[in-house]
Design a protein that fits this description.
By secondary structure, the protein is mostly helical. It has helices at residues 2-33, 38-47, 50-65, 67-75, 117-124, 131-144, 146-149; strands at residues 108-110, 161-163.
């Protein structure tokens, strides 16, 4: 008799686990489709009652959004070099991260024959830029290159190397 009870409990446990797997799969498929599907809804209604589906959906949502689960998962990871990491950190060993430049790249502009600060500024902006926007770029271009240009912003020479301000 005890063997029958144990076997029945094991079968019931397997049935509950299978039902949970089906419900989780239905929730994931429904969420991935980003809309309600009549066939998925009718299949879910035949497999389990509404209250059980809502409980499973709530547990899945809680598991995905609870910050404690993510922090606990990485809390006991030990670094290859030393002691365990503090809770909430993530171990990314083996992932190559791109090198980031420590300073932004400086773009230089070479003055061509016939260029003015106005024509250089206009060339760096969109075709429909207003005169006000071009004038602002001229001011920024001159401010960034005052030591090279000198006191007269109208006097630039072909071959001069000017540093482009942020907008050009």
């Amino acid at each position: 008799m005890d063997g029958l009870v144990v076997a029945g409990a094991a079968c019931a446990l397997v049935a509950v686990i299978a039902m949970l797997i089906v419900l989780i799969t239905l929730n994931v498929v429904g969420a991935a489709m980003a809309r309600r599907s009549a066939s998925i809804d009718s299949l879910a209604a035949r497999v389990s009652p509404v209250w059980l589906r809502r409980c499973v959906l709530g547990v899945c949502g809680f598991a995905l959004t609870a910050p404690g689960f993510a922090a606990t998962a990485g809390a006991h990871d030990a670094t290859p070099e030393g002691p365990p990491r503090p809770a909430g950190t993530v171990h990314l060993a083996g992932l190559a991260l791109p090198d980031l430049p420590s300073t932004p790249a400086v773009r230089t502009l070479t003055v061509r024959p016939g260029d003015t600060l106005w024509s250089i500024a206009r060339r760096g902006l969109q075709a429909d830029a207003t005169d006000r926007a071009i004038a602002a770029e001229v001011t920024a271009l001159y401010a960034a290159n005052r030591q090279i240009i000198g006191d007269d912003p109208d006097l630039i020479f072909p071959g001069q190397q000017l540093t482009a301000p942020g907008g050009i």
